[in-house]
Amino acid sequence: MLWNHTLAVTTNNDMAHNSLGDLFLRHGELDTAISHFEKALEIRSRTAAAHYNLGGALIENSLATALVRKGRLSEAIGHYEKAMKLRPDYGDPYLNLGSILFQQGRTEEAIAQWHKAAATQPNDAGFHMILGNAFLQRALQKDAIAEYEHAARIYPHDPKSRNSLAWLLATSSDASTRDGNRAIEVAEQTVQLSGGKDPNSLRTLAASYAEAGQFSEAINAAQRAKEIATSQGNLQLAKILQGDIALYQIQLPLRQTFPEK
């Protein structure tokens, strides 16, 4: 192995230890990965040069990720925080720490970290999709809509953010959030971007038609979605769509229940 040879013929080679750590992390050999990351950081700690900060932050983030996979969350959090101190403009530690906090039910703290992550990479639609989903988990539907809209503006050819936006506009249990006509407009864009072959996008379009009172169109779109889902072997989705169709046949729109605040 190249990096093992490098270690054999050099001393204090933090780059080699970091590269080996990444390799072992990818292969799931977590203890060995952690050992190499820790050695890389030990070597780097002897050098205070400012240009080392980004590399150190990358290693701290990788070490924390390995520790998370070992279930050592408290230690991982500490290393994510060290990465942030080394390079406040590096977004991954904020994103990863937010994920840990969210899994622990500390949603408000998680959202605060994701906001920081988004600020480091304002043109990354993925960060804003994560924020939108987190707001939705807290029943902050209007905040979720704002994030989905932002993601759609950043990445105009991505159907995912538009599908999430249209679904919320069409199915929210909050009447002040729903907007059937706008949902149709966004859902039609989503179907077009997905080539008309994504059953989830078509399901959203059907729900949008139903919210606007266009139940014949809703039935047709849901039926198309069901046929595609069936052809793809997604029988669970096909069953869900059959339930949607039954609602539209008696002229009832679809309502999605979201968590309470």
For the record, the count of structural domains works out to 2
Q: Name the poorly predicted regions.
A: 1-9
Write down the overall geometry.
elongated
Span between N and C termini? 53 Å
**Helical region count?**
14
The gyration radius over C-alpha positions equals: 23 Å
Query: Order of helices and strands, N to C?
Result: HHHHHHHHHHHHHH
As a percent range, the share of strand residues is: under 5%
Count the strands?
A: 0
Which CATH architecture of the largest domain would you pick? Alpha Horseshoe
CATH names the topology of the largest domain as Serine Threonine Protein Phosphatase 5, Tetratricopeptide repeat
Mean of residue pLDDT values: 86
**Structural class from helices and strands?**
mainly alpha
Biggest β-sheet strands, sense, barrel: none
Per CATH, the class of the largest domain reads Mainly Alpha
Helix content: over 70%
Write a short abstract of this structure.
With 261 residues, this protein is mainly α. It has two domains: 1-90, Alpha Horseshoe (Serine Threonine Protein Phosphatase 5, Tetratricopeptide repeat); 166-261, Alpha Horseshoe (Serine Threonine Protein Phosphatase 5, Tetratricopeptide repeat), CATH 1.25.40. The chain is 74% helix and 0% strand.
